[in-house]
Amino acid sequence: MLRLVLTRMKRSAKQWLEKNAASIAPESVIKSIHAETEISSGYFFAIGVANLIALCGLLTNSIAVIIGAMLISPLMGPILSTGFAFVTGNRTIGSQALRKIAISVAVILVVAAIATISSPLKDPTAEILSRTHPNFYDLVIAFLAGSVGAVALCTKKNYLTVVPGVAIATAVIPPLSVAGYGIGIGSVRIFGGGFLLFFTNFVAILLSTVVAFSVYGFLPTAAKEEEVRHLKQRMLGLAAVLLVISIPLIYTLHKTISDVRRQYAVRETLKNGLERRDVSRLAGFSILPATDGAMEIRATVNTVRYLKKGEIAAVERNLKKGLSENVRLVVEQIQVQPGGLKDVVQIAPALLPTPPPAPAPSPGETLQASRKNAVDSLRKEIVTIGNILRPSRVAGFSIAFSDGSPGIAVTLKITRDAPVTPAEKRLLEGILSDAVGTPLTLEVVTVPVVPPLVFPEGETDLTDEMRAHIRQAAEYAAELSLPVLRVEASPDPSLPLRKGQALAETRAGRVAGALAEDHGIPKDRISISVGRREKTVPPSVKITIIPEDAVPGRVKR
After folding, report:
1. Same topology for domains 258-335 and 366-447, yes or no?
2. pTM of the predicted model, to two decimals?
3. Which of the ends of the chain has fewer CB neighbours closer than 10 A, N or C?
4. Domain limits, the chain
């Protein structure tokens, strides 16, 4: 009975394959495949333009620009041709397609690296970093999209509407642009992550086109035993490559899922333990591995009345039990006023004793009193601004008045590495203007979170003072959302160029290692670079902390 069912299934599958093969025009498909293997100046012009557009979108964190680059890129064509040659055994098409792909990849990497070196924007953005950690879903998406593209090429049905979607889903240009960007800034990690995503997409598309072309009858030109054996060998080789690249992809996916589950578990435990109706509310939290091996969780709570130590200790015990890890909970409580302010009882003026008339103040006294009130109001409001700017803090401020006029000029000094945006400056100006009741001019000066770590000439060891500054940078970064830490070393100006650069790379590596190993900063959030040698700059390492917010609706690919 089973043999009969298997025989019928085999016969049905054979008839279905023959029907699919008969429904297409092989000559038209082969002609399209040949056309995609031709190398022309127009092709490389389109590749170069798509690459530069993708790089601009990556550096400016614009997903719309990146999608435009995906639609322009013609690199999908030779990849489909490679799949056709793989399944049919056509060495001519295969060698031409692989040659075209290799040249294209080299051109993209070189152009992206040169453009990155020339660009004033070199900081890794969220769109760049999102393409340095491919996972197993990227492989699945590329396989599905590649199969749709191959079917559309064979059947010519909905070809014009399918191809743009396939180009966006497979996204072979942006990962290569990220790899070129990694070369431009000297980051092996970013280069490797971007190139791994491209190679993952390439292998998945190749596998899907092999399946699709096989279904539509494009098998070896000579149905000999040797040709079939060669096809099986090629399939085994492709399966081996697929298995090898699946290992890091599955690991990355598992780590991402674990992090998401841990964040959810922490959030729910904190909400259940710290939130009380009409009393307290969880405002936010962050997770930071501490130096003593315990996971440190910092939570901020808005509360009408302060929570007791016993309540916080109970939440900490629940976190340890739920996460099965050593946890230290630090709760920052901010007392708030419930509802609105109470009305003040007014006493009728007729019932109050009439005070003697006060002498009218002079214009100078009036101006002096007005300025004193403005200074007092600004001092109070700057405390509020310090809470708004956290984890940045107000390092100092000055207030200047114009003689003979009520104008006020405020200079605010804050600790942060990212520049203040025009929108932030307008917000601060509005807060301070409302406080004094008059327009003012505001100048915001930023000072580094930590000073440069200056090394003695020829030395690479970290001192206790340097480690204290590194700890300060890690604590600052822990309060930001997805921060990027740039570690830039300046070579010794008195040493030969190569030796100075080698020592600078060692110093930068040790600082990055201390951030990652001693303070739990993820390595993918740290970028290392070596600056130019300048006679006036001593051998040092500068740590720059750049905050990055996730873009809603961002398309990872």
Report:
1. yes
2. 0.51
3. N
4. 17-219, 258-335, 366-447, 453-546
Q: In what order do the strands lie in the sheet with 295-303?
A: 280-289, 295-303, 327-335
Q: Quote the tokens at residue 83.
A: 């799949």
- For 512, other C-beta atoms within 10 Å of its C-beta total 22
The listed CATH number (2.40.230, 2.40.160, 3.30.300, 3.90.1720) that belongs to domain 366-447: 3.30.300
Amino acid at 421: T
Q: Which residues does 192 contact at the CB level (< 8 Å), separation at least 6?
A: 132, 179, 182
Contact 534, 494 (CB under 8 A): no
| Burial (Cβ within 10 Å: 0-12, 13-18, ≥19) of residue 331 | buried
- The whole-angstrom separation of Cα 354 and Cα 352 is 6
Structure-token pair, residue 420: 């203040």
- Of the ranges 186-200, 201-215, 435-449, the best mean pLDDT one: 186-200
Q: How far is CA 49 from CA 73, 74, 345, 481, in A?
A: 8, 11, 72, 33
- CATH fold of 453-546: 60s Ribosomal Protein L30; Chain: A; (3.30.1330)
41 compared with 278, residue with greater pLDDT: 41
- The 8-class DSSP code of residue 131 comes to T
Rounded-to-10 torsion of CA 371, 373, 376, 378: -70
Element (H, E) at 528: strand 526-530
What percent of the chain clears pLDDT 90, i.e. is strictly above it? 8
Sequential DSSP letters for 302-337:
EESSPPPHHHHHHHHHHHHHHHTS-EEEEEEEEE--
- Closest-CA residue to 268 (of 286, 278, 282, 287): 282
Give me the helix-helix angle, 173-185 and 63-72, nearest 10°: 120
pLDDT for the residue 61? 85
Encoded tokens for 518: 């001693």
pLDDT at 553: 38
Pair 162, 149: CB distance under 8 Å: yes
Quote the CA–CA distance of 300 and 329 in Å, as a whole number: 11
Q: Which residues pair with 342 in a beta bridge?
A: none
